[in-house]
Write a structure and sequence with these properties.
Length: 296
């Protein structure tokens, strides 16, 4: 049975309540859908100490990653699996007890999820995209298409694409029939991010007059500070939004005015936040808010 057939069967035979997580996860896995537990905030569980900062090399299916033998549900979307022995293992048991919902890796199931966050995004989809299976979410809708592609956040206002190297929440069967992934959606992934909130604007820091080296901190101090900030975000177990904002605020308060903070440094911070489930839009907003608070 193909993974797409599995998705359709689960959608057609859904009967368990959404709080019955482990049996539902096993049903999905049996039918070929890679699953993982999601904790409060609807985000993956953070890496264990042995895998912190990906010192283990990451999961085998992560880009540029080596084989990780950790039995825990580490590495966000890359933890998704169809192996029932892993899903029911003692290493995953604490995560299932704390989990609030089930996540799955759409790309590995041959699917793409167009995540619509608000009414304006839904209106755009109805006017632009072909009809397909639709699942209601807390704030909007998931439009699910047959076919995988590279995932990308903030492709336009209120729209994220979740497919390969991404996770989505499993929220039940939805309505409608799966349609093939249209070129309209594929094209969104190669366009620049939404012009209302471009990432380049969000990560630009005013240079110090005259340029040159930071007058009061060494390059090694900056590198150590960025590494500590990334670790703080990566190891956050709760209140991820607040942790990301406070970390951005701390980095900017120290280096936001001296000109030594570059886009490469900020990209590392954004990447760490996104591994915890934050979208690019949320990262950009948190960065902009921190700059405003500090008067940058």
């Amino acid at each position: 049975m193909t993974q797409l057939t599995a998705i359709r069967r689960v959608a057609g035979n859904w009967s368990r309540p959404p709080h019955d997580l482990l049996p539902t996860a096993l049903d999905l896995a049996t039918l070929g859908v890679p699953v993982l537990p999601l904790r409060k905030g609807k985000v993956p569980f953070g890496n264990c100490r042995a895998c912190a900062k990906n010192v283990c090399g990451g999961r085998p299916n992560m880009k540029n990653a080596g084989p990780c033998q950790c039995p825990a549900p580490c590495h966000a979307w890359a933890a998704a699996t169809t192996d029932p022995q892993v899903i029911t293992s003692p290493a995953w048991a604490p995560a299932w007890r704390e989990a609030v919902c089930i996540g799955y890796h759409p790309g590995d199931a041959g699917l793409t999820v167009v995540d619509l966050d608000d009414a304006d995004a839904i209106t755009w989809a109805r006017e632009t995209l072909p009809a397909t299976r639709i699942v209601a979410t807390t704030r909007g809708e998931h439009w699910i298409y047959r076919g995988a592609m590279a995932g990308r956040n903030a492709v336009r206002p209120g729209v994220d694409i979740k497919s390969s190297m991404a996770y989505a929440r499993y929220l039940g069967p939805g309505t409608g029939h799966l349609a093939d992934l249209p070129d309209t959606v594929r094209a969104l992934a190669v366009k620049a991010p939404c012009p209302v909130r471009p990432a380049s604007h969000a990560v630009t820091v005013p240079a110090r007059a005259g340029g040159g080296e930071c007058p009061h901190r060494t390059p090694a101090y900056l590198e150590r500070g960025i590494a500590m900030a990334v670790e703080r975000i990566t190891e956050a177990r709760s209140q991820v939004h607040a942790t990301v904002y406070r970390t951005f605020l701390a980095v900017l308060s120290t280096h936001g005015r001296c000109g030594c903070l570059t886009d490469a440094h900020v990209t590392r911070l954004f990447a760490a936040a996104q591994t915890k489930g934050e979208t690019l839009r949320h990262c950009s907003d948190a960065w902009a808010n921190a700059r405003t608070t500090l008067g940058l």
